[in-house]
Each structure stands twice: as structure tokens, then as C-alpha cells.
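Researcher: Here's the sequence for the chain we discussed earlier.
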Amino acid sequence: MKYVRCINNRKYFYFPEESRHQNDTILGLEIGQVYKLALPDPNDQPEELSVIDGTGEDYVYPASYFEPFLPNNEKAEGVTVYLHP
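Model: Thanks. This is the structure I predict for it:
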């Protein structure tokens, strides 16, 4: 299982009827929070990650919005992660 830390939660997609605001954020993503990666879909692009966000569902987000939780995928003897129900 791999985990990533959110470093950006600015909204990047708007529906045509939505108004745009400078400080819009994505519901379910919080900067500094650690999230579990979901299995990628074959249609996902290399610059995208499938992430189980704070809603408990997996969504595709830009990979640039996250950093690896364990740098360089280093092995750790133990990690405690709190995932919001």
C-alpha cells in the first residue's frame, strides 16, 4: 500500500455553470493530510493519481498535488496513519 501527502488542494476543474473564485479548494483534500493511493485505472494518465480522499471514495487528481509519504519509497519498520472515516 502506498500513501501520499497532499501539497495542493486548489480546484482545477469547473463545470460551465460554476463561478470561479481564487481560493476555491477541492472538498475532500486537505493540505498536509496523508491519503492512500487506489489502484490505477488503465485510462489514467501518467500525470494523474487515483487517491482515496477524505470522502472515502477514490478520485483522479493531478500527481503534482501530492508528494510521496515515504520519500523514494523507502521501507519503514512501522508507520501510523490516520484515515478519516
